[in-house]
Write a structure and sequence with these properties.
Elements lengths: L15 H8 L19 H21 L9 H23 L4 H12 L1 H7 L1 H22 L2 H21 L1 H15 L27 H17 L1 H26 L5 H12 L1 H7 L1 H22 L2 H22 L18 H17 L10 H23 L5 H12 L1 H7 L1 H22 L2 H23 L31 H16 L2 E2 L1 H6 L7 E4 L2 E4 L11 H6 L6 H7 L12 E5 L40 H16 L6 H19 L4 H17 L3 H15 L6 H26 L12 H15 L3 H13 L23 H6 L8 H16 L1 H27 L3 H21 L3 H15 L1 H8 L9 H7 L1 H8 L2 E3 L5 H4 L5 H6 L8 H14 L6 E3 H20 L6
Parallel strand pairs: 1-4, 5-6
Antiparallel strand pairs: 2-3, 3-4
Helix pairs in contact: 2-5, 2-6, 2-9, 3-4, 3-7, 3-13, 4-7, 4-13, 5-6, 6-7, 10-11, 10-13, 10-14, 10-16, 11-14, 12-13, 13-14, 15-19, 16-17, 16-20, 17-20, 18-19, 19-20, 26-29, 27-28, 29-30, 29-36, 30-35, 31-34, 33-43, 34-36, 34-37
Length: about 1000
């Protein structure tokens, strides 16, 4: 049942909205509950429903006082377009939870017309007659299509919802009428069936006999008087459909538009399946197509223009519905990548059409428009296609029909492989067509001559001029034998889907038969020889890593390693299927030997803080490929994907974006002269009210000076700098979430929407390179705090984070043999800087962090030629420079504003530092031994927040959850905290969380202790 189309059978009057919501609560997208729940309408049901609709139309026509209404093309077009608006309104209402049930009811009226007329005859009759009367009366009164469509849409909405509410009463009236005339069955004579009674409610008769007796003759008269308009509409719709099919084949021949051609062909060739699977979309497209075709005929009275309008409308509405509604996508057949479009085909058709145009100049009795000639050609091609189908139905003519069909369906291949034959056949057809028209000026004779000459030339080519050889075979799979009687039936061009899937599975199984050891995998760890292990399979990405959307650096970092969990961190589950082309084998099941892990930041090792697991069975063993903690973490991640936790809330991020723009606008106010004068006058009024005459006079004088162009006060300057810093900070959070695939769920990964939102916030507002951030931040998430490799935590020579960095620092000094004194001097300078690192880290991060971030962004974008990033960062400099130059009159104020603003933005860097600084650091081997859960919990800490400062951290106060699930939207992080805590407690892993102040104190103490240890290191050792 779709959208509860047959009404709510047991709705108590007065409780309709609540019960309707409850009844439709389980409906899916577009109100679909179960496509098989609605019985498929048979031919008799469809014919009966059409007759009932015509009966209702006759009632409407007879209700007009002057009998001025007829079933002409204008009224038909109005009805079709109103149906489109009606369906679209239902789709919009179904998107919002409070109106979802009502929207599904509206959709069900259009998508289940036959079913509604079968089960709710009286209700459908009243709704349709009232609806049509409103549309046509509005058009007659205003002579405006727009007002008529608006009235029809809104009145239809009210009528349907009212009819749904009155359904129990209408059923009662209908049942009593049937009982009175003894026209129902024994079951139908019992209208008072109790709620909850077993068995479905029996359907009502399709057309009430009493109503049919009263209006039956009127229906016949309606059909008789309007038969010409009805037949004309059917013929025009049929011609437009044929033209659409032919055009779709032409579009599908060109690789860039092949997908569009496949979509259009699917709409026509799979009409029945589309209506069953996507009734709302099909109703919208069909009504739009018919409305444009018939409406153009009613408006211009030109059949050719009407067919052209229907062709264009059909193409646009199908492609728009496919592009705008991702959930409406119809799976099509696998693309035929062997088809190519060579210039020979284009040139040949261009020459022939140009000759055709030249041979038929404008004049009396001749084709006067090239569009008419093109339409004529398409119709002749469609007729030839139908003729080939007729020939294929008989054994003797099957080969001939296959030859004609092959000419039409494989035009590109024919011009590539048989150019002379194709030119002869097409040229002869065009010559006979033009000659017949010039002699007879009869369109019917010209059509027959063109089709017959084309098919005759195909037969001559097959038998005499270009007989097929044994190697030749039709692309459709059927050989075109010379003897028609001996020709076999054509075989399908594409293997069945299950056969293709079975063959693919067989190939995959043969590849997986090769087992790759961990030692062999480690040997392929260079840019030219890059193998990666993911979930027990090995992939060779040697020729593809440079095109990796997340940057090649992260692939090369895990070359020769098992990167199963790192792959899952940044990709949705659907991406795994795209790795099949790179599959080269399976990874051995045994775990590599675990490497010893050194804990602690200082030179004195610390004991392993990991406690005993709550379950003794969870102790990791060498025989297990995955340790229990990692296994449970993977199960939690899969469960969260299945629960929809990774689906973002668009309204949440829309509100965040509004907040960013509001802060940007608010930053202007304190610096505007009018605003400064208003502030000063308000202060003057307050001082005067308090009796402070001198203060009031001073404030008034300042107001006059502010209005005259004097600079803002210090507090106004700092207020504007703070507001602008908050704007950039919140914009950074939105850019961060966007590039983590946490804002848009469709599609995830690279998309125009993601790039636009990221560049707006990170590029234009914040002024950094999105490409640089994406590469560096992904590496930071993959191997957090790895000594010397995490690009966002390389702080030589300012801050030492662990003694594991000391050898890496020494390696960056001048060579001891070549310049021992220079090496010693540089090391003393490093020791001097780190001696006060616990005092300098916060001020330097605030003062220098913003400048450093902008500088490395420009260097990265220019070096890697990321011109889009360069343009967006240039736009940031342009608006920020204009902001400072136009609103601040003196150089001193400008410098002060920039310094204060950049320092306040630098608070963001302090926030990020505290989430990782002075936690554990591990090498690549230690990381592999720990597993992703233990590793991330050991290198990350959460910051405790209250209700008022959680917003300030932008969700990154839950850094542990963010590192375990980078694609999880910000507003879902708090929901994941108890689940991660429970998982950590189960396996005895510490879960670090501190208040902001305590984290600052802890980091300061650890940095001070490390600076003392660094002072004792001998650089010559």
């Amino acid at each position: 049942r779709i959208g509860c189309p047959s009404g709510l059978a047991d709705v108590t009057p007065g409780t309709w909205p609540a019960q309707m919501s409850a009844t439709c609560a389980d409906d899916g997208p577009l109100g679909t509950r179960d496509l098989d729940g609605v019985p498929r309408a048979g031919i008799l049901s469809i014919i009966s429903a059409a007759a009932a609709i015509l009966l209702a139309v006759q009632v409407v026509i007879q209700t007009h006082p002057t009998n001025a209404w007829t079933l002409n093309h204008t009224n038909m077009a109005l009805a079709f377009f109103s149906s489109v608006c009606f369906t679209l309104l239902g789709m919009l209402l179904s998107k919002w939870e409070p109106t979802r049930a009502a929207g599904m009811v509206l959709i069900g009226r259009v998508t289940n017309t036959v079913h509604n007329w079968e089960t709710e005859t009286l209700r459908s009759f009243i709704e349709l007659t009232t609806w049509l009367s409103g549309i046509w009366l509005a058009f007659d009164t205003t002579n405006s299509w727009l007002i008529a469509l608006l009235c029809g849409t809104l009145s239809g909405w009210v009528l349907v919802l009212g009819g749904e509410a009155l359904t129990p009463y209408l059923r009662l009236v209908e049942a009593r009428i049937r009982n009175a005339y003894d026209l129902g069955s024994a079951t139908e004579k019992s209208p008072g069936r109790r709620r909850g009674s077993a068995g479905p409610e029996p359907p009502a008769a399709l057309v009430d006999p009493v109503i049919f007796m009263l209006y039956g003759t009127g229906v016949l008269r309606l059909i008789y008087h309007n038969v010409s308009d009805i037949l004309a509409a059917c013929v025009l719709a049929g011609l437009a459909g044929c033209a659409l099919l032919a055009m779709s084949k032409l579009i599908a021949a060109w690789p860039p538009t092949r997908r569009a051609g496949a979509i259009l062909q699917d709409r026509i060739l799979n009409t029945s399946a589309n209506w069953r699977a996507f009734p709302a979309r099909s109703a919208t497209e069909a009504c739009s197509f018919l409305g444009c075709t018939i409406g153009a005929m009613a408006r211009y009275r030109q059949p050719v223009f009407a067919v052209q309008a229907g062709l264009l409308a059909g193409m646009l509405v199908c492609l728009l519905s496919e592009a705008l509604g991702g959930r409406w996508m119809v799976p099509t057949q696998r693309e035929d990548r062997s088809a190519r479009l060579v210039p020979l085909c284009i040139c040949a058709y261009a020459v022939l059409l140009s000759c055709h145009w030249t041979f038929a100049p404008s004049g009396a009795g001749r084709f006067q428009a090239f569009s008419l000639q093109l339409l004529f050609t398409i119709c002749c091609g469609a007729s030839a296609q139908l003729a080939s189908r007729c020939f294929l139905a008989h054994e003797r003519t099957r080969a001939f029909g296959a030859a004609i069909q092959q000419r039409l369906t494989h035009t590109v291949l024919n011009w590539e492989t048989k150019p002379l034959r194709s030119a002869l056949e097409v040229g002869w057809t065009n010559v006979i067509t033009v000659a017949t028209w010039n002699v007879t000026h009869n369109l019917n004779l010209t059509s027959v001559a063109g089709i017959a000459s084309g098919m005759g030339m195909v037969l001559l080519s097959e038998r005499y001029f270009f007989p097929p050889t044994k190697a030749d075979a039709a692309p459709a799979g059927a050989k075109l034998a010379v003897n028609p009687a001996a020709a076999p039936a054509p075989a399908p061009a594409v293997a069945p889907a299950h056969a293709t899937a079975a063959a693919a599975d067989a190939r995959t199984a043969s590849i997986l038969a090769r087992v790759v050891s961990h030692a062999e995998l480690r040997r392929h760890s260079t840019a030219g020889d890059c193998w990666v292990g993911v979930h027990g399979r090995v992939y060779d990405v040697s020729k593809w890593h440079a095109r990796h959307p997340g940057g090649e650096e992260i692939l090369l970092a895990y070359a020769g390693r098992d990167a199963s969990d790192q792959f899952e961190l940044f990709h949705p589950p659907s991406v795994g299927a795209k790795l099949r082309p790179f599959l080269i084998g399976s990874l051995e099941a045994d775990r590599p030997p675990a490497q010893p892990v050194r804990w602690g930041l200082s030179s004195t090792p610390e004991p392993d803080p990991t406690g005993t697991p709550a379950d003794p069975a969870d102790h990791p063993t060498a025989a297990n490929r995955v340790d229990p903690a990692t296994r449970d973490y993977r199960e939690l991640r899969r469960a969260m994907w299945a629960e929809g936790q990774f689906q973002p809330d668009p309204a949440f991020y829309a509100l965040k974006q509004v907040v960013v723009l509001a802060f940007l606008a608010a930053a202007f106010l304190p610096l505007l002269p009018a605003s400064r004068a208003a502030f000063a006058r308000a202060a003057s009024a307050a001082a005067a009210a308090a009796g402070w005459g001198d203060a009031a006079a001073a404030a008034e004088a300042f107001a006059i000076a502010a209005a005259g162009g004097a600079g803002p006060a210090l507090w106004q300057l700092l207020l504007s700098a703070a507001l602008l810093a908050l704007c950039l900070q919140q914009a950074a959070f939105i850019g961060h979430d966007t590039l983590h695939n946490g804002v848009f769920s469709r599609p995830r990964g690279l998309s125009r929407r993601r790039a636009t939102l990221a560049q707006l916030n990170a590029g234009v507002l914040l002024g950094i390179s999105c490409d640089m951030w994406l590469i560096e931040h992904n590496l930071h998430h993959a191997y957090t705090l790895r000594p010397g490799e995490d690009p966002q935590f390389k702080y030589f020579p300012l801050w030492l984070q662990s003694v594991k960095e000391v050898p890496l620092w020494l390696a960056q000094l001048p060579d001891a043999a070549a310049a021992p004194r220079l090496r010693a001097a540089v090391w003393r300078a490093v020791q001097l800087l780190t001696r006060v690192q616990h005092l300098t880290i916060a001020p330097v991060a605030m003062v220098v962090g913003r400048y450093n971030f902008v500088l490395i962004s420009w260097v990265h974008a220019i070096r890697r030629r990321r011109w889009l990033d360069v343009c967006c960062m240039a736009a940031h400099l342009a608006w920020f420079g204009a902001f400072v130059a136009l609103l601040l009159p003196t150089t001193r104020q400008r410098l002060l504003f920039v310094a204060a603003h950049y320092a306040l933005v630098g608070v963001l860097h302090v926030q990020l530092l505290l989430s990782h600084l002075c936690t554990q650091q591990f090498s690549a081997e230690e990381e592999a031994s720990l597993g992703v859960l233990r590793f991330q919990l050991a290198t990350t800490r959460n910051i405790e927040t209250c209700w008022w400062d959680s917003w300030f951290h932008g969700g990154l106060e839950k850094q542990i959850e963010h590192h375990l699930f980078p694609q999880l939207p910000r507003h879902r992080l708090h929901d994941a905290v108890p689940r991660v805590r429970s998982l950590a407690a189960k396996h005895g892993i510490p879960y670090m969380e501190l208040p902001f102040s305590d984290a600052m104190v802890l980091c300061g103490r650890n940095l001070a202790r490390l600076s003392v240890e660094l002072a004792t290191v001998n650089p010559a050792a």
